[in-house]
Automatic annotation (TrEMBL):
It catalyses: butanoate + acetyl-CoA = butanoyl-CoA + acetate. Pathway: Lipid metabolism; butanoate metabolism. Residues 281-437 form the Acetyl-CoA hydrolase/transferase C-terminal domain. It comes from Eubacterium callanderi. GO terms for biological process: acetate metabolic process; acetyl-CoA metabolic process; butyrate biosynthetic process. CoA binds at residues 222-226, 322, 345. The active site is at 247 (5-glutamyl coenzyme a thioester intermediate). Coenzyme A-transferase that converts butyryl-CoA to butyrate. PANTHER family: ACETYL-COA HYDROLASE (PTHR21432:SF20), ACETYL-COA HYDROLASE-RELATED (PTHR21432). Keywords: Fatty acid metabolism, Hydrolase, Lipid metabolism, Transferase. This is Butyryl-CoA:acetate CoA-transferase. HAMAP family: But_acet_CoA_trans (MF_03227), But_CoA_trans (MF_03228).
């Protein structure tokens, strides 16, 4: 049978496709920009019309509010299980129907394959079918193939605006594996900005990091203002022969590449390729990665594997933090019991970069933040708030960077580490931090003389 004929036979409306969903099912909605849209609308109506209950849905990094969230009393019908929280999902936590699934992002494909995760129905957006019968996952290779291998029913929603992201393995699904095809209204890709223009604090932190980056280094950037500022500064620098091996592909990489700084010639693996597990940004990013052979879309158990990261010389990992305490514990996913995002791959890159020959891992944050009441608070705290999740343990943090400096915390005793951390705190909070450190017996009286 020709692929065109098979396509026609499997083509149905979204309303027809979702009829397979029944109460108690486990559903997968895709990931980030691949999250179902037309199927989501049809499913929301199907749930209400048939009073479905106990639907357990997996997804992550929602970039818009799904229709299934908008039904009356969603907690009576669905439970959203997020692999990584966005702002949309944080609000759903407060509504009582969303929960985070703690993970090491690099292990996600294995969770599906080895743990035998139930997937009754998988529904997600894909790029149009190619001449060989493949639907590309777009910038979302991540864990998608592993999830599809576990799915009893697979429904793809074709979006002509989904970029076709080249890879090498597990970046597409063949029509023979698909049960139904839905053609949506082809919405433009959802855009994800970097959180506003870089602040003076962002720029100062970027300066401190960029001066540590050698020619030929391989970059991993997290999302947010500071990593984006680092990217902008790199694009304006004299650095050359840079490589990319990252969890998330962001706009900053496009700017660096277009400035002629990236060629991947010094990478030990995947030479000349910019390797990533998923990508989200502005239309500029989607246009750049579409059909671009320089960019390599790959599953997350490859991109985030410590063995892959550490195999690349001069690996530079740059990530944000919410809070850091005087023991060197880093929380990047919650503030107390208030959940913010997720573990993602930060720890994998922290560990992998340090194991890399010449590699460095940077945890960066502003020294302070302002509350809604206009009060200035320190991000460097004596101990993490009760309920705050430790993303990177005190044994794993390498460089800590704020606008007041950068310190290498590897191998330091508790009092040395405490002293170094306080040295990059905001001056207004240092005496208070010293007093608390003394109470915790991690401060030597001679520290002030060092």
């Amino acid at each position: 049978m020709s692929f065109i004929k098979e396509y026609a036979e499997k083509l149905v409306t979204a309303e027809e496709a979702v009829k397979v969903v029944k109460s108690g099912d486990w559903l997968d909605y895709g990931w980030c920009s691949a999250t179902a849209r037309e199927l989501d609308k049809a499913l929301a109506a199907h749930v209400v019309e048939n009073d479905l209950v106990d639907l357990k849905i997996r997804g992550g990094i929602l970039m818009w509010v799904p229709e299934i969230f908008k039904i009356e009393n969603p907690a009576d019908h669905i439970t959203w299980n997020s692999w990584h929280m966005s702002g949309v999902e944080r609000k759903a936590i407060a509504q009582g129907f969303a929960y985070y699934t703690p993970i090491r992002y690099s292990e996600m494909p294995r969770y599906y394959r080895d743990s035998k995760q139930d997937v009754d129905v998988a529904m997600f957006q894909v790029a149009p079918m190619d001449d060989h019968g493949y639907f590309n996952f777009g910038p979302n290779a991540s864990h998608m193939m592993a999830m599809c291998e576990r799915a009893k029913t697979i429904i793809v929603e074709v979006n002509k605006n989904m970029p076709r992201c080249l890879g090498g393995f597990e970046e597409a699904i063949h029509i023979s594996q698909v049960d139904n095809i839905v053609e949506g209204p082809n919405p433009l890709m959802a855009e994800l900005g970097a959180g506003g223009p870089a602040t003076d604090v962002d720029k100062r932190v970027a300066e401190l990091i960029v001066e540590e980056i050698p020619n030929g280094a391989c970059l991993q950037l997290g999302i947010g203002g500071m990593p984006n500022a680092v990217g902008s500064l790199i694009a304006e620098s004299d650095l050359k022969d840079l490589g990319v091996h990252t969890e998330m592909y962001v706009d900053a990489f496009v700017d660096i590449a277009k400035a002629g700084k990236i060629n991947g010639s010094k990478k030990n693996i995947d030479r000349f390729r910019q390797t990533y597990a998923f990508g989200a940004g502005t239309q500029k990013l989607y246009d750049y990665i579409h059909d671009n052979p320089q960019c390599m879309s790959a599953p997350v158990d490859y991109t985030n594997d410590i063995r892959s990261i550490s195999a690349i010389d001069n690996f530079m990992s740059i990530n944000n933090a919410v809070d850091v305490d005087l023991f060197g514990q880093v929380s990047s996913e919650s503030s107390g019991i208030k959940h913010i995002s997720g573990a993602g791959g930060q720890l994998d890159f922290v560990l992998g970069a340090y194991l890399s020959n010449g590699g460095k891992s940077f945890i960066c944050c502003s020294s302070t933040f302002m509350t809604r009441d206009g009060e200035m608070k320190s991000r460097i705290v004596p101990t993490l708030q009760p309920g705050s999740v430790v993303t990177d343990t005190r044994a794993n943090i390498h460089y800590l960077v704020t606008e007041y400096g950068k310190v290498n915390l590897k191998g330091l005793s508790t009092w040395e580490k405490c002293d170094a951390i306080i040295s990059v705190a905001h001056p207004d909070f240092r005496d208070e931090l010293i007093a608390e450190a003394e109470k915790m017996h991690i401060w030597r009286r001679t520290n002030k003389d060092n």
